[in-house]
């Protein structure tokens, strides 16, 4: 069995790599920080005695995406599981003033994810099997003034994954959408989460692995976010636009 991690050097993605390696998967760790990915690959090999190879991947270099997926498939002898884990919160205030900053948020969180997902879908359909995991966000469940650009990109990704799941079901390919709340990642450093618990990378990785294994369609992390976001979506627009969220 084999797993490709795109955006492998994030705290959650690296733990997912270890979790799949512990289950006997060979892994390819793709990230823009190649030296960091190489160190992670060495650690995975040492701990789990599987093949672990690092390759460079730049989410915004769209023209290079086909070569990255082809290289990963060649190294692994076919991709059984793929995790699209890259993303960027961006600077919300700057993005409101400069479209170049807004475009970067959209391209990294949505356009780049769609680009690699379509390539992975074609690969898995040709093999007649596979699991494709995309990390969206609870921020995409409803537009909020504080992060509507990031949220809209993640919301678009979730909708895309839903459609892709519907398309690929008949081909034996499973598509899992992960919607995290607050997790202990680089993007949440310095963010005031109030009394809302922050999920550890280890717990998130285990939850993602188990959700994929049982064939879940959508998983909220932690699960209580499903109820929270259900409540937030139920708030009438006339009231919601007056709330400071």
Any key phrases for this structure?
alpha/beta, Rossmann fold, 16% strand, 9 helices, 7 strands, 245 residues
What does this 3D model show about the protein?
The chain is α/β, with parallel strands linked by helices and 245 residues long. The longest helix has 29 residues. Helices cover 50% and strands 16% of the residues. 44% of the residues are buried. It has one domain: NAD(P)-binding Rossmann-like Domain (Rossmann fold, 3-Layer(aba) Sandwich), CATH 3.40.50. It has a seven-stranded parallel β-sheet with strand order 3-2-1-4-5-6-7, with helices on both faces. It contains nine helices and seven strands; from the N terminus they run βαβαβαβααβαβαβαα.
Topology:
Elements: E1 2-6, H1 11-22, E2 26-31, H2 34-48, E3 52-56, H3 65-76, E4 81-84, H4 92-97, H5 99-127, E5 130-135, H6 148-168, E6 173-180, H7 201-213, E7 218-221, H8 224-234, H9 237-240
Parallel strand pairs: 1-2, 1-4, 2-3, 4-5, 5-6, 6-7
Short précis:
The chain is built from nine helices and seven strands; from the N terminus they run βαβαβαβααβαβαβαα.
């Amino acid at each position: 069995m084999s797993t490709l991690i795109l955006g492998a050097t994030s705290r959650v993605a690296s733990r997912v790599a270890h979790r799949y390696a512990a289950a006997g998967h060979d892994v390819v760790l793709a990230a823009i920080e190649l030296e960091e990915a190489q160190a992670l690959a060495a650690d995975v090999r040492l701990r789990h005695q599987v093949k672990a190879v690092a390759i460079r991947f730049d989410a915004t270099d769209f023209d290079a995406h086909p070569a990255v997926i082809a290289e990963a498939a060649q190294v692994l002898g076919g991709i059984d599981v793929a995790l699209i884990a890259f993303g960027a919160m961006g600077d919300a205030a700057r993005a409101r003033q400069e479209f170049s900053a807004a475009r970067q948020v959209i391209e990294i969180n949505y356009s780049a994810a769609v680009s690699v997902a379509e390539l992975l879908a074609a690969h898995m359909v040709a093999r007649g099997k596979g699991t494709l995991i995309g990390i969206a966000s609870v921020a995409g469940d409803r537009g909020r003034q504080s992060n509507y650009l990031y949220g809209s990109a993640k919301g678009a990704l979730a909708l895309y994954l839903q459609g892709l799941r519907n398309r690929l079901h008949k081909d034996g390919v499973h598509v899992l959408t992960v919607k995290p709340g607050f997790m202990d990642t680089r993007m949440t450093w310095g963010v005031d989460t109030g009394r809302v618990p922050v999920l550890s990378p280890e717990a998130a990785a285990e939850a993602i692995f188990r959700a994929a294994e049982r064939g879940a369609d959508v998983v909220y992390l932690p699960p209580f976010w499903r109820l929270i976001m259900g409540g937030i979506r139920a708030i009438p627009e006339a009231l919601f636009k007056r709330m400071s969220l």
